[in-house]
Structure formats: structure tokens, C-alpha cells
């Protein structure tokens, strides 16, 4: 089962994105068809610059659920367009551009849905014209920048009906076919989207969830004296913006309540307890709309390969919202998840499959960091990408420390630890090849240097004093 998106009343040169593909619209572009089952993200902006973007998550089911499905009355008579087959049931979503709100508004009127469904399934001229203005779902652009989307519809109207194997988008250049979207959303579920976006009412069926560039988690909201969070939302966003339902990750307290002494120290250095606590608090219970305010737990699995899927799902969701909407709060949550997972050591022995899935997902996301202009963060020395470099070094040292403890496990668990080590080596090779990062500790700290006049002097680098606890970072013994 696939889906069709009708995008009505779009202004010219509107910035439109569907998953990893972005383009600018033209008057003869009215939507996208053939969208496969799964989670997909549609987002728009009045301009291609850094303006506020509005996005909608769509969860396309594998089977039809209500009357919005395009079910043909007579499958023996199919329209001439192969991209819009009557023999396959399709879910129909209709969006209309609102000039006042500068965003796409979901049309929920049943009469409009039925009218457009009959039009798209019709064999008359109106039906053929409507189908010619729909482009097939792709994640690539196969022609260069000067061609507009309208050329597809024009070509179809000149006797090449339905031959839309290429997507032509204004102001876009040819790129390689991307098939990473299913992997980037592998753990994003209907329940996670409902918890994360916090809609004020149960979503429609099939469900949709909306987000904007300005959506913010409570912990990321600026604290302005004299203004409450409600006042800020009412003043800036007309009272329609709500807080993001991020996981309650508190990196300032990563030990159990009531812990003292050594237990606190171990909890601060090894955040395994905090990671287990986050997973346990957000697993197994789907969102209950009547009792959502109590705990807001999310569904998950109890088997080892499914443990932590809620963390991986939120990591995927936050990364994609940063990539597509430039949402700063999602970037902060993504960094919190990285810091929480990569500083958990003792849990590596118990959940090696989770850490293996995490590292594989992280590399996949890092490959797409340059999809945004200027990159997601500065990976050069001194840039804001250093936080990730330090976290990867910390995790590699932790992995080396726990590997000798493998005598506590055997069989399948030991094989998974070996697989985790192999994935970590792949991560190390990738960041070294792409960004020139060195994760190992084999650095020359002190040595002799011969000057131009032949004099030899001893020099010592201060770059890693904090990591080696040298110089001003050396421990101090205080006698009480």
C-alpha cells in the first residue's frame, strides 16, 4: 500500500521537502504519489533561506484503515498513468497552503477527500490532468538546476503521459540516489511521534504529526525573568506552539536517588545507570491519551535486540529534525543522547547489541551531516564538533577497559562484543578518513627537537594535559 500527497494552492518557488529531497515548487506541481509505507516527513518554507519551516510527519500504514484510501471501483479498467495505478490501494492526504499562516494545512473534510479521490481515479480529461501533476516518490534529482518541476507535467501533456521516471526540481543539481531514509527512520514509530510532538488531540487516521523550527523542549527554553514558558509561547507563536516531549535525560544527576559517596562518583563517571533508567521509564507502555500526563511512556520491546529502541528512535527523530527544520532544541537533545550513551561503560557487557546498533546509526547520520549548507557542525580543530571527538575517545577507552572482563560472558554474548569492536574500528577508520580525527592515545607528548643552529631542546605538548591529568589539571593532594 502506498500514499498520495495532494499539495494545493502552493505559491511559486515555495521550498518543499519530502524526506531527504528538497526542491522549489512550480504552478503545475500538485503533489507526490507512490509514497511507500513507513514514516515520512513533509516540510515547507516560504523561502529557501533560514526562515521558519513547518513540517508534518506522516505514518503510512501497510494496509488501508479508512475511507481516505483510494480504492478503485473497477480494477479491470486502470488509468493510463503507470505512476498512479488503480490496481493498488493508496492513502490520500490533502494539504492546502495557508497564506495567513504560511504553512500547509491538513484538509480533513470528508467531502473534499471523496471529491479528489474520485477525480484522481477518473478516466476523463480532468482525472488525467490531475494525475499528470503528481510526481512519483523519489529521493534523487536526475537533471540539473534550470529545469522546473512543471516540465514533467508539460511533457506528460504532450503525449508522454505517465513517463515520470525523473524528478526535475528548480534550483537543484543532480545528486546520487539515496536509499538511507528507511535506515534513518528504522526506530521511529507512531507512538514515539505522538509522545515527541505532543498533539493536543488524538491524531487522525492515518495519523499525522506537526513540528516547526521553533518547537522547543522545556529544558532548552530560555529562562527570561518575568516571563513564563506560557507567556513566551503566547507572545511569539500565537499560543499554538507546544513543548517537545523529549526523553527526560538529566546529565547533571546520573545516579539513583539516595546514592551517596562512591556510588555517586561511579554514577558520574559511568552513566550506565542513567541510560538504563531512561530506557526503563520509556519502554513497554504506549501513549494513553486519557492518562498521557502521568508518565507518557512509549512502546518498545523486551528482547535484547530491541532493548533501547526508544533511545535510538529519539536519536533518529532529533537528527532528522535538525537536518530538515534546523531545530536547535532537537540538536541539543541529539547531543544529550550521544553523551549519555557514549559515557556508559559497564552496560557494554550487558547490552552489546544496543551499542552496536547505536554506532551503526551514528555513522549513517554522520554521513549526512553535510546535507545542510555548511555542515551540521564544525569538525575542524577547535570547532563545535570537538564534543563528538572527545565522546568517541571516551567510549573507545571504556570499551578497551571492559573487554578484558569478557570472561564473565560466553557464547553469543561474546560474539556480540566482538561485533561491537569491529563496528568501533569501522567508526574510527571513517572519522579518520573523512575528518582526520585520531581516536587512539598513541601521541608523542614529550621529546627532543633539534633547532636550526644545531641546539637540541626538550619540548612537551600541552594539548592533552586535561586528558592526561598533567599540568594545571594534575590531581592535588590536600591534607585535612
In brief, what are we looking at here?
Helix content is about 35%, strand content about 15%.
What does this structure look like?
- By secondary structure, this protein is α+β, with helices and mostly antiparallel strands.
- Helix content is 34%, strand content 14%.
- The chain is built from 15 helices and 13 strands.
- The protein has helices at 110-121, 125-132, 150-157, 181-184, 190-197, 229-237, 262-269, 272-281, 309-325, 328-342, 347-350, 352-367, 386-402, 412-435, 465-468, and strands at 2-8, 15-18, 21-24, 31-35, 38-45, 54-60, 69-70, 90-98, 103-106, 134-136, 208-212, 446-450, 456-460.
- The strands form three sheets. Strands 1, 4, 7, 8, 9 and 10 form a six-stranded mixed beta sheet that branches.
- Helix 1 packs across helix 2 and helix 9 (309-325) packs parallel to helix 12 (352-367).
- The longest helix has 24 residues, at 412-435.
- The radius of gyration is 26 Å and the shape is elongated.
- Residues 67-88, 142-177 and 286-305 have low confidence and may be disordered.
List the total number of helices: 15
Mean pLDDT: 76
Strand content: 5-15%
Helical percent range?
A: 25-40%
What kind of oligomer do you see? single chain
DSSP E strands, number: 13
Structural class: alpha+beta
- The end-to-end distance, rounded to whole angstroms, is 73 Å
Largest sheet: 6 strands, mixed
Using only C-alpha atoms, the radius of gyration works out to: 26 Å
Q: Spans of 5+ residues with little confidence (pLDDT < 50)? A: 67-88, 142-177, 286-305
Tell the overall outline: elongated
N-to-C SSE string, H for helix and E for strand: EEEEEEEEEHHEHHHEHHHHHHHHHEEH
Amino acid at each position: 500500500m502506498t500514499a498520495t500527497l495532494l499539495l494545493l494552492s502552493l505559491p511559486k518557488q515555495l521550498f518543499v521537502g519530502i524526506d531527504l529531497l528538497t526542491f522549489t515548487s512550480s504552478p503545475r506541481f500538485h503533489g507526490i504519489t507512490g509514497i511507500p509505507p513507513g514514516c515520512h516527513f513533509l516540510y515547507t518554507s516560504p523561502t529557501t533561506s533560514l526562515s521558519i519551516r513547518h513540517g508534518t510527519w506522516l505514518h503510512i500504514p501497510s494496509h488501508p484503515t479508512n475511507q481516505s484510501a483510494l480504492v478503485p471501483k473497477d480494477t479491470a479498467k486502470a488509468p493510463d498513468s503507470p505512476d498512479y495505478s488503480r490496481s493498488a490501494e493508496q492513502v490520500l492526504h490533502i494539504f492546502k497552503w495557508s497564506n495567513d499562516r504560511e504553512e500547509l494545512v491538513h484538509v480533513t473534510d470528508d467531502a473534499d477527500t471523496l471529491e479528489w479521490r474520485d477525480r484522481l481515479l477518473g478516466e476523463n480529461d480532468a482525472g488525467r490532468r490531475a494525475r499528470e501533476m503528481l510526481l512519483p516518490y523519489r529521493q534523487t534529482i536526475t537533471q540539473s538546476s534550470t529545469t522546473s518541476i512543471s516540465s514533467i507535467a508539460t511533457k506528460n501533456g504532450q503525449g508522454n503521459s505517465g513517463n515520470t521516471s525523473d524528478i526535475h526540481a528548480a534550483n537543484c543539481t543532480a545528486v546520487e540516489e539515496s536509499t538511507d531514509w528507511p535506515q534513518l527512520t528504522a526506530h521511529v514509530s507512531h507512538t514515539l511521534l505522538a509522545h515527541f510532538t505532543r498533539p493536543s488531540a488524538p491524531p487522525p487516521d492515518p495519523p499525522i504529526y506537526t513540528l516547526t523550527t521553533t518547537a522547543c523542549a522545556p529544558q532548552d527554553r530560555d529562562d527570561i525573568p518575568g516571563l513564563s514558558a506560557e507567556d513566551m509561547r503566547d507572545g511569539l507563536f500565537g499560543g499554538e506552539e507546544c513543548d517537545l516531549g523529549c526523553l527526560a535525560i538529566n546529565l547533571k544527576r546520573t545516579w539513583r536517588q539516595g546514592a551517596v559517596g562512591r556510588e555517586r562518583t561511579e554514577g558520574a563517571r559511568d552513566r550506565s545507570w542513567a541510560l538504563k533508567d531512561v530506557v526503563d521509564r520509556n519502554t513497554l507502555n504506549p501513549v494513553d491519551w486519557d492518562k498521557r500526563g502521568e508518565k507518557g511512556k512509549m512502546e518498545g520491546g523486551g528482547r535484547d535486540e530491541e532493548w533501547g529502541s526508544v533511545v535510538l528512535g529519539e536519536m533518529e527523530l532529533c537528527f532528522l529534525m535538525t537536518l530538515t527544520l534546523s531545530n536547535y532544541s532537537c540538536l541539543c537533545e541529539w547531543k544529550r543522547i550521544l553523551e549519555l550513551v557514549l559515557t556508559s561503560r559497564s552496560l557494554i557487557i550487558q547490552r552489546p547489541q544496543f551499542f552496536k546498533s547505536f554506532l551503526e546509526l551514528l555513522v549513517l547520520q554522520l554521513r549526512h551531516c553535510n546535507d545542510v549548507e555548511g555542515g551540521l557542525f564544525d569538525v575542524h580543530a577547535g570547532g563545535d564538533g570537538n564534543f563528538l571527538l572527545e565522546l568517541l575517545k571516551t567510549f573507545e577507552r571504556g570499551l578497551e577497559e571492559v573487554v578484558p572482563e569478557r570472561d564473565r560472558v560466553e557464547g553469543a554474548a561474546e560474539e556480540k562484543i566482538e561485533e561491537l569492536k569491529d563496528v568501533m574500528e569501522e567508526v574510527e577508520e571513517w572519522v579518520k578518513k573523512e575528518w582526520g580525527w585520531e581516536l587512539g592515545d598513541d601521541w608523542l607528548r614529550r621529546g627532543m627537537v633539534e633547532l636550526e643552529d644545531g641546539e637540541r631542546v626538550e619540548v612537551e605538548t600541552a594539548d592533552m594535559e586535561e586528558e592526561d591529568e598533567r599540568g594545571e589539571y594534575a590531581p592535588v593532594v590536600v591534607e585535612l
